[in-house]
Recover the amino acids of this structure.
């Protein structure tokens, strides 16, 4: 298919904008948004550039997103970078995998992959999240032991890392407390535009960006089952 020079140039402007800001909103860049949504050639060119950059370009509502693929360490985060962002200095792999488990638990508590939208609640308290993490770790370890299956997540190691963190009744957010560990993760998710973390009220809310992404992914039953399996949730629960 032959493309006009103007279409190529416009697609490059859109892709550069996405590289810079990770999203393109209709109310902020109407001309570029209109070019993407109303010109199929431009849309195809932008998506092709996304593929070359190991990313996916998707539109949810009135926002176009650049989504790095799972192993894209250039536009996304490598394991080493995430460990640095989410865990304290000197953290082990146990701490890193625990941080990933915390994020999965947040997703599981807000979304269930059923119905016309995957979202099931509007907010969650930090204390409730800490209790959920503890319960899911214990359930996962029990299910893994019962199945005598040592593949997948090492729940015992993550429990050790979680229990090594102190629990502070006053909610102190030092690096050695559960509250501090969770606080660091929530701040990271907020900086990525995925949640609203209202620290004064110890409240977590999801953003439209995360809602759109989860609707697209979790409403795919295979993806939902995969997340549940990682969390140690069995089919009959």
């Amino acid at each position: 298919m032959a493309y006009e020079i103007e279409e190529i140039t416009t697609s490059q402007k859109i892709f550069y904008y996405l590289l810079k800001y990770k999203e393109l909103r209709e109310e902020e860049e109407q001309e570029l948004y209109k070019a993407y949504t109303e010109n199929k050639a431009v849309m195809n060119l932008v998506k092709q550039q996304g593929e070359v950059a190991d990313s996916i370009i998707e539109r949810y509502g009135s926002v176009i997103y650049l989504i790095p693929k799972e192993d894209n360490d250039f536009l996304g985060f490598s394991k080493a970078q995430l460990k640095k962002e989410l865990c304290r200095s000197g953290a082990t792999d146990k701490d890193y995998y625990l941080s990933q488990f915390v994020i999965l638990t947040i997703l599981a508590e807000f979304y269930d992959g059923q119905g016309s939208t995957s979202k099931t609640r509007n907010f969650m308290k930090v204390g409730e999240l800490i209790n959920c993490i503890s319960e899911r770790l214990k359930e996962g370890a029990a299910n893994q032991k019962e199945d005598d299956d040592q593949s997948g997540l090492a729940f015992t190691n993550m429990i050790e890392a979680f229990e090594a963190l102190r629990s502070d009744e006053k909610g102190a957010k030092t690096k050695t407390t559960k509250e501090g560990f969770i606080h660091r993760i929530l701040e990271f998710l907020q900086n990525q535009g995925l949640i609203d973390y209202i620290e004064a009220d110890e409240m977590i809310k999801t953003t439209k960006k995360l809602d759109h992404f989860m609707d697209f992914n979790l409403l795919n039953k295979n993806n939902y089952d995969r997340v549940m399996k990682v969390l140690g949730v069995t089919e009959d629960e």
Notes: DSSP finds ten helices and six strands in the chain. The first strand starts at residue 23 and ends at 25.
